[in-house]
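User: Structure please.
Assistant: Input sequence and predicted structure:
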Amino acid sequence: MHKVAEDELRLKVHDVRLSNQEIVEFGYLVKETLEPLIQNEVKIKALEHLNCIRHCFQALQEILAVVDANYLEMHSELAEFYQNNRKLGVMPCDILFWKRA
């Protein structure tokens, strides 16, 4: 397959309908996966894996912005984890860390 065709497939956008609850569930799943990696300073050797983790975190920040505020308020721990004033950085030794956005 040609590079252009691969990029078109990879970047194709879809409209997906999710409930507030489903979005929050995805948020918790990713949060529970990321926290130990960050807190324990786990070295992640594959650049693709590091980029995937960072992109998932950023995507969930954006997706959580559409959750009804009243519902998200019930999940303050999640809202705090995905706060918009921070993002994931990568140390030269391939360890994730929090940095200000």
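Residues 27 and 60 are 6 Å apart (CA to CA).
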